[in-house]
Specification:
Layout lengths: L8 H25 L2 H8 L3 H7 L3 H21 L7 H18 L1 H12 L6 H24 L8 H17 L1 H8 L7 H16 L2
Helix pairs in contact: 1-2, 1-4, 1-6, 4-7, 5-8, 5-10, 6-8
């Protein structure tokens, strides 16, 4: 079997341009509403040139999701079982909120995939993501049994963290419209509110 040759500098540049353009297009229009022509135009490439790197729209979308999932799981991986429980959970919450601030397109891409039933990423959700969440909920239950944090359902705790933090990326337009033009950056107050909410919830 012939080994795959490493990409040249130009090939790496074009691949990165395609993925960056696809992130813009997919996060705005969703998978079904996006076309290869839109992605090629946004990337500044011809459609035949784009197809040299990726054989289909689905291949681009899957590539983006695979890269995204690893980034998405990193904040939860960093939660240290040997650390102070409330500090570790609050650190996780803050990292998730920072991701919504810094990676809004990625958050919307992931949300769109989930809303469609996760056809291109279900294997990873049922595999790597579930395994990591199972591992961390075991840690949370141990902290609860030791009386270090309040007893709340660990899975629903994680779901609520995802919901509250990712809302600021997935519903950014709504958030900013409701807050009005004077609220230039919603994230400082969001952090204060969410930190207060979960600190009170988790303190025994």
């Amino acid at each position: 079997m012939t080994e795959k040759q490493p990409q040249t500098r130009i090939q790496r540049k074009n691949t990165a341009a395609i993925l960056e353009a696809a992130l813009d297009v997919f996060s705005q229009y969703g998978f079904r509403g996006s076309t290869l022509d839109q992605i090629a135009q946004t990337a500044g490439l011809s459609k035949p040139n784009l197809l040299y790197y990726f054989p289909s729209k689905e291949a681009i979308h899957t590539g983006l999701l695979s890269r995204l999932l690893d980034t998405w799981l990193d904040p939860l991986r960093e939660m240290d079982p040997t650390g102070d429980p409330i500090s570790e959970l609050m650190g996780y919450i803050d990292r998730k909120l920072e991701m919504s601030r810094d990676y809004p397109r990625e958050s919307r891409l992931f949300a769109n995939e989930i809303l469609q039933g996760a056809p291109r990423i279900m294997g990873a959700i049922e595999g790597e993501l579930k395994s990591l969440v199972d591992e961390k909920t075991t840690v949370i239950r141990q902290w609860q049994d030791e009386g270090k944090i309040a007893k709340v359902h660990p899975y629903h705790l994680i779901f609520s963290i995802w919901s509250l933090t990712q809302h600021y990326a997935d519903f950014d337009v709504q958030v900013r419209a409701v807050l009005g033009p004077d609220e230039v950056d919603p994230f400082p107050e969001a952090k204060t509110y969410i930190d207060t909410l979960f600190t009170k919830l988790l303190t025994p």
